[in-house]
Structure formats: structure tokens, C-alpha cells
Amino acid sequence: MRIAIIDDDRRIYEHLQTYLGELLGAAAELTYFPSGEDFLRVWQPGAFDLIILDIFMDGINGMDTAREIRKSDIEARIVISTTSN
User: Fold this and answer.
1) Is the pLDDT reported for residue 84 higher than 80?
2) What span, in angstroms and rounded, lies between the C-alpha atoms of 59 and 41?
3) What digits encode the pLDDT tens for the residues 54-74?
4) What was the pLDDT predicted at 63?
5) In terms of pTM, does the model score above 0.70?
6) Which partner for 6 in 26, 33, 74, 81 could form a disulfide, CB atoms 3.0-4.6 Å apart?
7) Are 7 and 34 in contact (CB under 8 A)?
8) d(CA 84, CA 72)
9) Whole-number Å distance between alpha carbons of 29 and 65
10) Element (H or E) spanning 53, and its range?
11) Per-residue confidence (pLDDT) for residue 5, from 0 to 100
């Protein structure tokens, strides 16, 4: 399973990497992006089975990144996450 994790806090990626590794094992192919802009530069429909987006990031936020994804792929599986209260 190809999973993109977009979060400006590398520690969150590392936590998700651990959890998803325990859950999915070798089936998880994770790719980290520190910003929505970095992700959208390489984004192509069908490139990832799951996209995990942080809501609050510097630059383009997770919701705006999701909107950009939806313009070219209405089937993409998107999970919005945050560590904010």
C-alpha cells in the first residue's frame, strides 16, 4: 500500500511510520512530504493508495491540499489529521 504522509512536523511522520509499520508491515510503502506544496509538485492521480494530510501546516494547509487533489482525482483516499486540540 503506497501511503503519502504530508505533515510539517517530522516527529508526527515518525510516529505514523511506526504505527503503520506495526499495522501493515512490509505492505506499507510510506513517502514523507514536509509540505502541501512539496506533495503537489509530484502529485499524480493514482500515485498513492492513501494520503494522510495534516490540517495545520505552514504554507498551503491540509484542507487546501486536499482540494487541489480533488481537482484531478475524485477517487483518492484522503485522511485529514491533526495534533491540535
Assistant:
1) no
2) 14
3) 999 989 999 999 999 999 999
4) 95
5) yes
6) 33
7) yes
8) 29
9) 21
10) strand 50-54
11) 97
